[in-house]
What does this fold into?
Amino acid sequence: MISRAERTVFGEWWWTVDRLLLSALFGLMLAGIVLSLAASPAVAHRIGLDTFHFVNRQVFFLIPATIVLIATSFLSPYWIRRLAFVAFLGSLVLVVATLFIGAEIKGARRWLNFAGIGLQPSEFLKPAFVVLAAWLFAESAKRPEMPANLLAMLLLGATVTPLVLQPDVGQTSLITAVWAALFFMAGMRWLWVFGLAGVGAAGIVGAYFTFPHVRRRIDKFMEPGTADTFQVDVAIDAFQQGGWFGKGPGEGTVKRIIPDSHTDFIFAVAAEEFGAILCLVIIALFAFVVLRSLNHAQRDEDPFCRFAVAGLAMLFGLQSCINLMVNLHLIPPKGMTLPFVSYGGSSLIALAFGMGMLIALTRRRPRAETLAELTHYQTRRA
It folds into this structure.
């Protein structure tokens, strides 16, 4: 047992970190391994790979993801800002690079290959962008004379432009939604609210007429009888077949016929084999992470920590909701993973990076330490 009197780095981390929040995240990682064992062997067999190919890779990526999560959670808000800035610049360069040297998959260039390992830079761009946007909005709240809101708008434009060119409408919409929420928290006027809502609506209409795959997905959703909705129909059937307690591990059929049963539709596999009870437990874990994080944000006196924690929690929660709603046929299909549960190396490590920053910013800090850091930060800006 670690004593409270122990003044080591690990001792201070242990007694200041939110262990319940950390436990919930590890619970989601464990659920990801269990569901990967249930869903991925059938996919691997269908495409001619080793039976546990995806399971082994999921566990392999969990190791660096755990290291990233824990290591990042040791950092102070001062170093979180600087790490986010470096990560943002590196990720943005790589996102732009995908437009020229990225592998084209289903008409989009979103991936880079390094020594046989695929990397999706936009996954790392998201949490870094949220922290930088929170930094700018916090500066706007503390120093009204600084054009921080204008810089935040320029930051959004620089971020979403290469994503639209890939094209990746889903990530663009997610980032824009979180940015708009932070802007609203920073005291956005109602004129801006209606203006941004109009821009968002125009963006959706523009995406519908510009990108054929967006048009196809929306048409399938609005008129399911006139298009192929096989994956969604099978997913809905999986929820109906599973009932409350499921068919039992290994007894499901959806994983054998849906191509993305180990990624986008892993929640449907969970429903069929383990039932609605496990699905509700997974949803409760996501809700706990988001609500507890927002509670931390509400009580934090540091504007930067308040905005950053709220933004990272909204990013995590919105991505989870999008995946769940696709599985339940509440929105058009979108290739977005279920955080820490779906298979995906880039997604797993990037989520660990984002949640590591959230854990670091929600650590309990003495009031004197918080005030000292704010004073030091303001002195450096004077």
Summary: The longest strand covers residues 108-114.
